[in-house]
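Contributing new records

If you add data, match the layout below exactly. Sequence lines come first and carry their own label; structure lines follow with theirs. Keep one chain per record. Anything else will be rejected by the validation script.
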Amino acid sequence: MQHFPGKKKIINIVDLGVIDYKEALQFQEKLLLLRKEERINDTMLILEHKPVITIGKRGNQNNILVSEEFLVEKGVKICSIGRGGDVTYHGPGQIVGYPIIRFQNHVSGVRELVRNLEEIFIQLLADLFDVKARRDSEYPGVWIENKKITAIGLSIQSGVTMHGFAFNVNTDLKSFQWILSCGITGKGVTSIKKLTRKKQDMDVIKKHVVQYFSQIFHVDPCWKDKEKLTEMLELAHE
């Protein structure tokens, strides 16, 4: 892991609570444009999504294992998006982070960027829950034995990242039965709740995720809410 010396860079951390996927995507797209133009600091959105299945650039519609009618009945939307990876599920109880950052200010390359994102959860799980998590040489993300607990999928434009990670905390794991997660056969998913047999406080875990992100990427977090984000976007456009 590379550490950049000197003063920590500020990163805006915007807590959006529980939010529709497309609304969060619109925020990402606006922030991406502004960050590419150097009109805002690095920013990370942290949130939970209403139930949604997303399909990445290399995604296969056949990896959704149930009918569209079934998903409509369950209130689950389907969105095709520009991140890497295949099919994944987002929903309540899952902490999602979208870092909109000029990544080469923090790491030497894309491989280190992904490793740092994985390291957040490897360290967090070890320190807070005494759980040994690992990387997989073939598939990005964080794994506990043969089960994924954190998915990672990014896109990069002009050196600025978009999309990010999804960390299963209290996630309803039954929802993953509707998909072939990330197009991977022979592997499963897990969550902190399943590992500890205890429902977790999402706000507490969210703060820990930001803490470990900040340590590993050597940044100083500045927390904002949705209202402050809207103000920030308006000011940046003036």
